[in-house]
Amino acid sequence: MMTTATATVTDDRARMEELGQLHICYATHKAWPLLNAALDAGQPLPASFVAVLRRTAMLAYWQVEKEQKKMIAGLTEPVLNPGEAWSDPVSYTHL
Questions:
Q1: What is the per-residue pLDDT across 17-29, written as a single tens digit (0 to 9) for each?
Q2: Cα-only R_g, the chain
């Protein structure tokens, strides 16, 4: 039987992977709580989700708070953002 905490982690992971399919995240009101909860719980983040957050934070016109930019800057994995034309060939050929 799945506990509430386990169900929440599973649901959050599925939401992060869903947002990770985007190039940038216009729904940051959904992304930040997921990031905070995963970091607080010590859960690993999907690489695609980290990549979306990084790309979103880099856009000059997008409203991302300084605290959120610091949080994203502290994410060291993956080293390269998956889902970008230049990084995917590098990531797979240099494993």
A1: 998 888 887 777 7
A2: 14
